[in-house]
Write a structure and sequence with these properties.
The chain is mainly α. The chain has a domain at 2-132. The chain has helices at residues 2-20, 39-42, 56-71, 75-100, 114-132, and strands at 25-27, 30-31. Helix 1 runs parallel beside helix 4 (75-100). The longest helix is centred in the middle third of the chain and has 26 residues, at 75-100. The protein is elongated and about 65 Å long.
Length: 211
């Protein structure tokens, strides 16, 4: 529970940073919302994009995916949002580097701006949130009364009045049908006609069965 709360806070912070980043300077004072999505695949141009057709669109999509992932506690969706933000940011850096002949960082407003830092930081926070979250736990299936849990071997329960007289039957006790003593402690039925004389020589055969 605590991990899900911390992960949700990190995910929301990362999504907020990603959506805010296009409204900051990305390169030479140019905001990220001025870069067209098509320029990321065909090359950076000087043409300015509409807000909807700018790099803001994939970041807004990532924010929506993050909200759904937080609501359903889905680590996969949060990680997907983080990969989307990082993927588009890195793709933009590659295209700008190709167009400018390299990327520079300076403190006078030229080169990479703080918008790129917001985007990269937001993507990293989303990935970190997906690792922190514990996700949803599978509901525990309720078992019918008397059914053992899977993987656990238990003997079937029997009421005390179903127990044979004298306790449970010993499976190792050698018995032969028709040769039980009258005082058999296991309560089995006794056929006196088949009881051999116990004082006879063990080597002798018992008397033949008489109908």
């Amino acid at each position: 529970m605590v991990r899900n709360v911390i992960g949700s806070v990190l995910a929301l912070a990362g999504a907020t940073a990603a959506v805010w980043s296009p409204f900051r300077a990305w390169y030479d004072g140019r905001h990220g919302s001025e870069y067209r999505i098509a320029d990321l695949f065909g090359g950076i141009t000087e043409a300015k994009a509409d807000v909807i057709g700018s790099i803001l669109l994939p970041f807004a999509f990532a924010a929506v995916v993050t909200l759904v992932g937080v609501v359903f506690r889905s680590r996969l969706l949060v990680a997907l949002a983080g990969l989307t933000v990082l993927g588009f940011t890195i793709l933009w850096m590659v295209r700008v580097g190709q167009a400018e002949g390299g990327l520079t960082i300076s403190g006078d407003g030229t080169g990479l701006g703080d918008g790129v830092a917001y985007a990269l930081g937001g993507g990293v926070l989303l990935l970190l949130a997906s690792l922190v979250m514990s996700g949803r736990r599978a509901p525990r299936r309720s078992l019918p009364l008397g059914e053992p849990e899977p993987g656990r071997h238990t003997e079937p329960w029997q009421p005390a009045d179903h127990m044979p007289p004298g306790g449970p039957v010993d499976p190792d006790r050698p018995t032969q049908p028709g040769y039980l003593t009258p005082d058999d402690p296991y309560g089995a039925p006794t056929r006196t006609s088949d009881v051999p004389p116990w004082d006879q020589d063990p080597g002798q055969q018992p008397p033949s069965h008489r109908a």
